[in-house]
Specification:
Elements lengths: L5 H8 L5 E2 H8 L3 H13 L3 E5 L5 E2 L10 E5 L1 H6 L2
Antiparallel strand pairs: 1-4, 2-3, 2-4
Length: about 80
């Protein structure tokens, strides 16, 4: 992945602990589309893990059109790159 954008760094800073999509949306202040784009890019680059919102089980696949069903947490790689 290329250098992180300021918004991607902000997303990562909210994901030290597992956060639901709704919490991330309200806490970050980003618009849905911008947050969706950042999350997908960070997931694809291995900087964020995806979890089932209800069971908190880590997932290897997810529905990018329905991010509200998931929770997210930064990986070690993501935490190292947020600074």
């Amino acid at each position: 992945m290329k250098k992180l954008t300021p918004s991607q760094r902000a997303v990562l800073s909210h994901l030290i602990f597992t956060e639901s999509y709704e919490n991330l949306l309200s806490d970050s202040g980003f618009h849905r589309g911008a947050l969706r784009d950042d999350l997908i890019q960070l997931i694809n680059s291995g900087m964020i893990e995806v979890f089932d919102r209800e069971s908190q089980v880590r997932l290897h696949g997810y529905d990018s059109d329905n991010l509200q069903y998931f929770s997210f947490r930064a990986t070690k790689k993501g935490l190292e790159n947020r600074a």
